[in-house]
């Protein structure tokens, strides 16, 4: 007789109730329906296929793009007492044969494979054999946005996964992703043959993440201030656009006393694996990385994600910041950006081999990302509206909500800037245009005879920094375009006409002074979730978790998440029965670790 999903949730995983759409999604898969799930990182996507895998007869096949993600999931499931394994190129031939024998003997319930491995004729033959012998419970396609060329992380091998619908039409498939706009969702449905699938869009909000975005001035010093002020002793990720910047930043952070490691595709596979292992297994590690790092990382206690360069799209930003606070505890998404970031990304896009339609789409995404940086409204409103097109209330947990930016009527300044672009022939970049507006005395202006223009010197009383802000905001609003084929020259968009004619008022953001920024930062400090009086017990619980994790050769969060330790700290259970009531402690973990943590709590009670 099949177990009920809720019973499995409680007995195996140690949670009392499903969250959000989990129950409906699990019911859909258990009933044999194809299912498409969009759920934010940390929302509990894994349970949406792990529980049906335990409910349904047969072996569940989980398709995951990265070995690190498979390792995490398999290690976590085994700690829950679930028979899970993975097949990938990192295993020896002997280990692979052993797993295949376990599969044929029906000793496994979940098997994780990469799409490349799944598509091998030998693997498909193995699955056909398993289907006949034991049955296949389901196929789960994780990170399903990888199937879309419009998505931010396209993987060509995902295109071939439609073979599952062709060769195994009776086996239900569930595709899952945290990030997909309407076009990407359509691609997932079409390319994975999920035309009649049940679709669940479980929201995109991550309310525990505080969004902080500021103008790039001295990026390293800004990062250092953020880390020392808010994130001392915490694990986090710092994203950079280039490999050189990754290594330089990691080295500099080490000089400042932080445990910082580098990760990018140019490092050897051995060093990447070593650094990733340290990030997952050790406490208080900062990983400085390109976007090559992160999709396969299941670490729940990442307390911050910082960007030293602007991401190329809101999808990429959401995916990357979503790696913070997967345990539901407070986390921060911090970023510095500048107009040069947008120009560099647009130049990279112009040099790419994508077709013109794809380049237009990516260009629009980049402009939308710059708009998020420049917006004066709630950042979460902008993010959520981008994905679901609905209106949301102010979040109260982003910098624009906590410290609302000041605005001013910038119509006159905008008209001067737009007129300067027009009268100089729409062929010059920001620096030159500011020189013209401020009446600079230089040879280049004289060469072009632009000192004779009516716009020459009309902005001499406006500081360079403010002019830079004006041009940046005009670009972010799409009134001005950057022409990279003409070395970053600015051109007017049709939407600039009403502003030039005085038919439209333009409210612009006021850049804060250094003193104002310091005051705002002080007010926006993270609230640490551990009271000072509880700190010794908290550290003792973490030390016990570390000891057990080392014994089992797994990351500490595989033993228990921070949220589970926090519940122990707050409730201080005195018996195994009380320990069993804490969220995240299933029957197997209770039997394995319950008494060890009770002893830690008893020792502090008696002290």
CATH topology of the largest domain: Rossmann fold
Report the radius of gyration as a whole number of Å: 27 Å
The tally of strands reads: 17
Mean pLDDT: 88
Overall SS class: alpha/beta
Shape: globular
Q: Estimate percent helicity.
A: 40-55%
Report the uncertain regions: 514-527
Overall description:
The protein is α/β, with parallel strands linked by helices and 607 residues long. It folds into four domains: 5-201, Rossmann fold (3-Layer(aba) Sandwich); 209-402, P-loop containing nucleotide triphosphate hydrolases (Rossmann fold, 3-Layer(aba) Sandwich), CATH 3.40.50; 407-511, Winged helix-like DNA-binding domain superfamily/Winged helix DNA-binding domain (Arc Repressor Mutant, subunit A); 532-606, Orthogonal Bundle (DNA polymerase, domain 1), CATH 1.10.150. The protein has 28 helices and 17 strands. The strands form four sheets. Strands 3-4-2-5-6-1-7 form a seven-stranded parallel β-sheet, with helices on both faces. Strands 8-13-12-9-11-10 form a six-stranded parallel β-sheet, sandwiched between helices. The radius of gyration is 27 Å and the shape is globular.
């Amino acid at each position: 007789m099949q177990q009920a999903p809720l019973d499995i949730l409680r007995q195996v995983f140690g949670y009392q109730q499903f969250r959000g759409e989990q129950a409906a999604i699990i019911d859909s898969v258990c009933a044999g329906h194809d299912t498409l799930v969009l759920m934010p990182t940390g929302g509990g996507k894994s349970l949406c296929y792990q529980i049906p895998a335990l409910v349904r007869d047969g072996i569940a096949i989980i398709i995951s793009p990265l070995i690190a993600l498979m390792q995490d999931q398999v290690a976590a499931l085994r700690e829950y007492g679930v028979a899970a394994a993975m097949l990938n190129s990192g295993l020896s031939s002997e280990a692979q044969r052993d797993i295949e024998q376990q599969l044929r003997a029906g000793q496994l319930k979940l098997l994780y494979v990469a799409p490349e491995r799944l598509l091998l004729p030998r693997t498909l033959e193995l699955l056909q054999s398993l289907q006949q012998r034991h049955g296949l419970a389901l196929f789960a396609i994780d990170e399903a946005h990888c199937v879309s060329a419009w998505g931010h992380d396209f993987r060509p091998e995902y295109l071939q996964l439609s073979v599952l619908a062709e060769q195994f039409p009776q086996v239900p498939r569930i595709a899952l992703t945290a990030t997909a706009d309407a076009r990407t969702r359509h691609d997932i449905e079409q390319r994975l043959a999920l035309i009649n699938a049940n679709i669940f869009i479980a929201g995109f909000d991550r309310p525990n993440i505080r969004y902080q975005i500021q103008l790039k001035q001295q990026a390293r010093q800004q990062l250092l201030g953020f880390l020392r002020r808010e994130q001392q002793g915490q694990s986090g990720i710092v994203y950079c656009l280039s490999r050189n910047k990754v290594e330089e930043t990691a080295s500099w952070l080490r000089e400042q006393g932080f445990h910082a490691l580098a990760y990018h595709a140019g490092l050897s596979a051995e060093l990447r694996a070593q650094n990733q292992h340290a990030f997952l297994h050790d406490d208080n590690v900062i990983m400085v990385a390109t976007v090559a790092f992160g999709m396969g990382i299941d670490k729940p206690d990442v307390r911050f994600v910082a960007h030293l360069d602007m991401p190329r799209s809101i999808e990429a930003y959401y995916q990357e910041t979503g790696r913070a606070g997967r345990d539901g505890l407070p986390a921060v998404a911090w970023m510095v950006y500048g107009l040069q970031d947008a120009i560099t990304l647009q130049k990279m896009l112009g040099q790419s081999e994508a077709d013109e339609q794809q380049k237009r789409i990516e260009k629009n995404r980049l402009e939308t990302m710059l708009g998020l940086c420049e917006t004066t409204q709630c950042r979460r409103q902008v993010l959520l509206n981008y994905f679901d097109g609905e209106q949301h209330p102010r979040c109260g947990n982003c910098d624009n909500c906590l410290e609302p930016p000041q605005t001013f009527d910038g119509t006159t300044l905008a008209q001067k800037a737009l007129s300067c672009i027009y009268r100089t022939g729409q062929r010059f970049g920001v620096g030159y245009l500011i020189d013209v507006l401020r009446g600079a005395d230089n040879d280049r202006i004289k060469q072009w005879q632009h000192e004779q223009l009516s716009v020459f010197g009309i902005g001499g009383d406006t500081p360079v920094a403010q002019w830079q802000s004006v041009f940046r905001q005009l670009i972010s609003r799409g009134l001005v375009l950057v022409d990279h084929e003409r070395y970053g020259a600015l051109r007017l968009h049709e939407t600039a006409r009403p502003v030039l004619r005085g038919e439209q008022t333009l409210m612009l953001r006021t850049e804060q002074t250094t003193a104002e920024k310091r005051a705002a930062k002080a007010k926006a400090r993270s609230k640490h979730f551990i009271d000072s009086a509880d700190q010794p017990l908290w550290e003792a619980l973490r030390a016990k978790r570390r000891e057990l994790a080392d014994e089992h050769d797994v990351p500490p969060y595989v033993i228990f998440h921070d949220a589970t330790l926090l519940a122990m700290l707050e409730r201080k259970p005195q018996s195994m029965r009380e320990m069993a009531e804490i969220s995240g402690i299933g029957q197997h973990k209770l039997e394995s670790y319950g008494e060890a943590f009770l002893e830690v709590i008893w020792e502090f009670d008696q002290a």
